Amino acid sequence: MKKIIVANWKMNGSIGFMNTFIPAIAPILTKTSNQIIICPPFPYFSSLTTALKGTKAQLGAQNCHTDPQGAFTGEVSAPMLADLGCQAVIVGHSERRILFEESDDLVKAKAAAIHAAGMTAIICIGENLTTRKSGHAIDSVILQLQASLPPSTTSQNTLIAYEPIWAIGTGLTASLQEITEMHHALHQTTKIPIPLLYGGSVTDQNAKDILSLPHVDGVLVGGASLKAEAFCKIVSAS
Ligand code: PEP
């Protein structure tokens, strides 16, 4: 079955990096039947769009503002991203929730702006280690999800990424059982079939097992999405 693979480059990359990385992954992006969304930093949108021509990969972004335009120095709006050919935007990533103090309400407003601009919102949710250890991970993630989904949400314009904070960039992956339990609870909660992704130290070693779990429709990949060989293996893991 077709899976969704989202690459989150975070604040990484350069023209030099793309000159070697994109030719290395282009063949797999041309023949895969999976849906691939690559989210580079904004300055590389144009080069990446050119480099991805002829492949099936889509362009995604890592953030946007809630308003369509205005006096918001340094910000980028959803309609601007759509104008550049962007098809999906990550919102509510834990790095933005923690480092930039983004609340559920702000995540919800950004997701609504993304929908209004005709793009897909990739809404990230996930518990911290204290919550996981307390045994309340599922309850807390469900509440976060309910508070982050705008009324404009449909199964066509939204992807939900479950990303336990303690597994992001740490090399610690949630166990297959933890992922299964959480995705089952999310599936029950959403009622409409919104695709569910897992993120948190996904590698070419664990992608196949994770992607074969029930209610795992794809993966959101950070670190491994910047390594050509590993990323190619993840794209072809399902
Ligand atoms: C992420 O950026 O959302 C992420 C899951 O990163 P990593 O794969 O490096 O843990």
Low-confidence regions? none
Given helix and strand content, the structural type is: alpha/beta
Strand content: 15-25%
Order of helices and strands: EHEHEHEHHEHHEHEHEH
CATH superfamily: Aldolase class I
Per the CATH scheme, the topology name is TIM Barrel
Mean pLDDT metric: 96
Helix amount, in percent? 40-55%
Q: Find the count of extended strands (DSSP E, 2+ residues).
A: 8
Which small-molecule species are bound to the chains here?
A: phosphoenolpyruvate
* Name of the level-1 CATH class: Alpha Beta
Terminus-to-terminus distance = 8 Å
- Evaluate the radius of gyration: 17 Å
Which assembly state applies to the chains in this document? single chain
The main sheet orders its strands as 1-2-3-4-5-6-7-8
Q: What's the tally of helices?
A: 10
- The number of distinct structural domains comes to 1
Q: Per CATH, which architecture? A: Alpha-Beta Barrel
Structure description:
Helix 1 links the parallel strand 1 and strand 2. The mean pLDDT is 96. The protein is built from 10 helices and 8 strands. An 8-stranded parallel barrel has the order 1-2-3-4-5-6-7-8, surrounded by 4 helices. The termini are close together. It has one domain: Aldolase class I (TIM Barrel, Alpha-Beta Barrel), CATH 3.20.20.70. It has 238 residues and is α/β, with parallel strands linked by helices. Phosphoenolpyruvate (PEP) binds next to strand 8.
